[in-house]
Design brief:
The structure holds two protein chains of two kinds.
Chain A lengths: L4 H11 L4 E2 L2 H6 L9 H6 L6 E3 L4 H14 L3 E4 L16 E4 L6 E5 L4 E5 L4 H8 L4 E2 L12 H6 L7 H4 L6 E7 L5 E4 L7 H4 L8 E8 L1 E2 L3 E9 L2 H14 L4 E6 L13 E9 L1 H17 L3 E2 L2 H9 L13 E10 L3 H14 L4 E7 L4 E10 L4 H20 L3 E2 L10 H4 L1 H14 L13 E2 L5 E2 L1 H17 L1
Parallel strand pairs in A: 2-4, 3-4
Antiparallel strand pairs in A: 1-2, 5-6, 6-10, 7-11, 8-9, 8-10, 12-14, 12-15, 13-14, 13-17, 16-18, 16-19, 17-18, 20-21
Helix pairs in contact in A: 1-4, 9-10, 12-13, 13-16
Chain B lengths: L5 H9 L5 H5 L1 H6 L6 H11 L8 H16 L6 H5 L6 H14 L5 H13 L12 H6 L11 E4 L2 H5 L4 H13 L4 E3 L8 H6 L2 H18 L3 E4 L2 H15 L6 E4 H11 L7 E8 L12 H10 E5 L17 H4 L1 H16 L5 E4 L2 H12 L6 E4 H9 L3
Parallel strand pairs in B: 1-2, 1-3, 3-4, 5-6, 5-7, 7-8
The chains are: A alpha+beta, B alpha/beta.
The complex binds flavin-adenine dinucleotide.
The site of flavin-adenine dinucleotide (FAD) has 36 residues of chain A, from strand 3, helix 6 and strand 10.
EC number (chain A): 1.1.2.4
Keywords (chain A): FAD, Flavoprotein, Oxidoreductase, Transit peptide
InterPro entries (chain A): FAD-bd_oxidored_4_C, FAD-bd_PCMH, FAD-bd_PCMH-like_sf, FAD-bd_PCMH_sub2, FAD-linked_Oxase-like_C, Oxid_FAD_bind_N
Chain lengths: 475, 389
Amino acid sequence: MAIPNDFLNVLINKLGEEHVSVDPLEKLVYAHDLAALPKSVKLLFDTTPDAIVRPESAEHVAEVIRLANEYKIPVIPRGGATWGFGGTVPVRGGVVLDLTGLNRIVHLDEEHGLLTVECGIVWEDIMRFLQKTCWELPVYPSSALSSTVGGWAATGGIGYGSLKHGPFIKNVVKATAVLPDGRAVMLDDNSDPSLSQLFGSEGILCVFTDLTLKLVPKSEAERPFMASFSSLANALMAAQEVLRLTSPHSLVLRTFGFTRTKDYVNPDAYFFGCFTGYKHAVDKYYLTLEEVVNRYRGYLAPEDEAGREWEERFYTLRVKKWGPSILGNEFIIPVPKILDMVGYCWQLGSLARLDVEVEVMFVSRDRALMFQLFLCDERKSIRYLTEAAITKKVLEAAIKAGGKPYGYGLWNFPFMEAAEPEKKRELESLKRALDPQGVLNPGKTIGAELALGLPLPGRLYGMLMDGVWFLRKVV
Amino acid sequence: MLVLPKLQLEDVFACAQCGYCMKRCPVHYFLGWESESPRGKVFAIKELIKNDGRVDEKRIHRLGRLLSKRFFNCTFCGLCREVCHVEIDLLELWSRVREMLYDHGFVPENVVRLSEALRLSKNIYMMDNASRTDWVAYTGADVSFKDSAEVVYFVGCVTSFSGRVQTVAQAISSILNSANEDWTLLKDEWCCGHPLVLSGATREARALAMHNVEMVESIGAKKVVTGCPGCYLALKHEYPRLLGRKPGFEVLHSSQLLDVYMASGKLTVPKADVTLTYHDPCELGRISGVIREPRAVLQTIADALVEPEYSGKESICCGSGGLLKAVNPSLAESLARRRYGMLASTGADVIVSACPTCVQTLAQAATATQNGKRVVDISELVAEQIGLI
Ligand SMILES: Cc1cc2nc3c(=O)[nH]c(=O)nc-3n(C[C@H](O)[C@H](O)[C@H](O)COP(=O)(O)OP(=O)(O)OC[C@H]3O[C@@H](n4cnc5c(N)ncnc54)[C@H](O)[C@@H]3O)c2cc1C
């Protein structure tokens, strides 16, 4: 879609030229997120923004949204663009709102361990800032080196530390957000709408502009661990036992493919993580871990090696080097279903002649975040498209097993009805109430839209993907 | 029509678009837009090439000028490569793209002028190359021009011509003398060619490399010493590629030479009651891996050596690399001020680097602040402390 010159002129007048870009190269590079879009999909949507705005303040954000409402122009919030579900990709042009300029630390309440930051700040900058204090972050995503705080509030919110401290939402006390009508509001448990209603709304209901995070006192001790096993089943049982007997900060289990770059003793599966807290507790947990690993005939890596793996925790996509592309999906799954799900992934993989790999990040003793991926090559367009259909199959199985997608965005929206019907109703009614004009991140999460604003029914989308999966056989 | 070599082609597609490079890029830090980030640039390349690596000529002609602006807004500091999730050799990629832009005539005017200057005068300042050794007279250094010697001191354009840092040449000469080295200057040194490589004019850099290597080899020197990390990178790493053979001499940076001299007792330097901080030049530290040696030298001669925020392989560029100063001086200045701020806030008395260009750049940033700190090159500091200059 083309945006009226009028709109652009007012925008530039209000924000200043340096905050607005219509440069063709800029539009090109803002037309995507982490995932490589198959060429055929690009034909369905108008992924190129008409303009990009880099606001400097919450007032700027409100101004852009107010104007967008006036002119009915889509606004697509964007943080680090590290989410792979198409949340920051325009579907019918509009304005991409790059929030990374709102990156200040607003206030540290040293006494109570509360930190207020602007939404576009990257986690790593908070970590650096906290080094000089006696506090640390309870939770952060494994993309902490480039993703933003606002981006995590708008998406899943499960990451390192969630096992011990809960999901991100449990660690935010309040936030400020701009609603789709341009109003700036304070959000907490008692506000209307409440913080939890808008948390995880994938940029379709509000733009978070600042957040107040809970911190935890720095741990006295930190002891990373890593153990490899000759079978996934053993690794999984050992991990569950570790969860039952100890309280790790994080525990992540991976299959062989993730270890491609490394040379482990037992290459089938491994887990790694970290104990944090008081030294005596950490040491006690470590002894228990040793005993469990032995019991399941695993190999406990030397601590320096475990330390290196822990340092590497932000580099989960190293394996892409051999792709050059990857396709995958993420879902929350009951722990007892993990083994079945991995088995199913492998089965699909062997049908498609692909090595499907799995990472499991435990969220609690009975729930885990599962990330399934395989290497592929986006340049082989038709094959790539058929392979994309695998991710849909996996998701369907996960939902049947009592799981749910870890994010909807543009790619997983048809699954919300089956996985979380109540959440869908709530989001739909909030969307109607807060954004009647549909300006904020349209065509995502609760329903898709094609280039000209035509709706794309979830069922049709599902049928298309099934067709593509069928096409696989022909290809 | 440029074909992106297989390795770079795979790399472009392997880029995870994770943005780790973007977060660290010192240029993106100031400009903020996605197209000014390494990640954005890789994506732009991906959109501009076909699956087999051939360039989409139509797109290049439409976007060439815009691309050129982005690809030359880069200091070639290599931090993006250092943090890359999938270990892409981004510096190599940037070089290929600059070559492509050069071949298509899409390089900034100042870069064209620079390569013109180099072609005609063999130095980056467009000066008569015969005046390259005028610094000897200005500084009163004790040097010689021999037909045969063990060591050649390769001075480099910046140190030779730029008044502020000619003392670096004086210092290195005096240190070589003090260590009783059998050394010489080249009678006709030409620019090392690194600026041409950075311009994308790799083919033209070859002529300069050939000349310099022939000069050194005709002297029969076994070692070439230079105080300039750019020259060091060119002589040591770029020449073998440009010439298709390994030159018959070893290349040492002055900081490595100082480390060897001091460790072997060839040079004794008294300890000074001073706190130093060290700025790693990108081309020396991160790119060439010379990180330990300058620190070993400084730890021996100073009371204390404090590390700034971001050091060693993580060091942040002072803004003088990659021809940024020529292309976008105000941006280069912003980078310099930021880096100077980090160094000054260590509380050190003196800021040391091992690169005449970094020293010059940071010293300029220092003068722009109140109570700016002293910025010196490591060889100047050592020579001063022994009383050689
Ligand atoms: C290597 C790697 C590791 C990862 N690990 C994890 C992990 O451990 N846990 C996890 O949950 N995810 C993970 N992710 C996915 C992703 O990084 C996270 O979801 C992250 O929080 C997204 O933040 P972002 O700033 O990149 O958001 P973006 O990708 O820019 O945006 C994501 C969505 O949020 C919306 N949005 C962005 N900012 C705002 C805002 N201020 N207000 C309202 N809406 C907004 C966008 O419109 C979009 O729909 C990982 C990704 C990578 C590449």
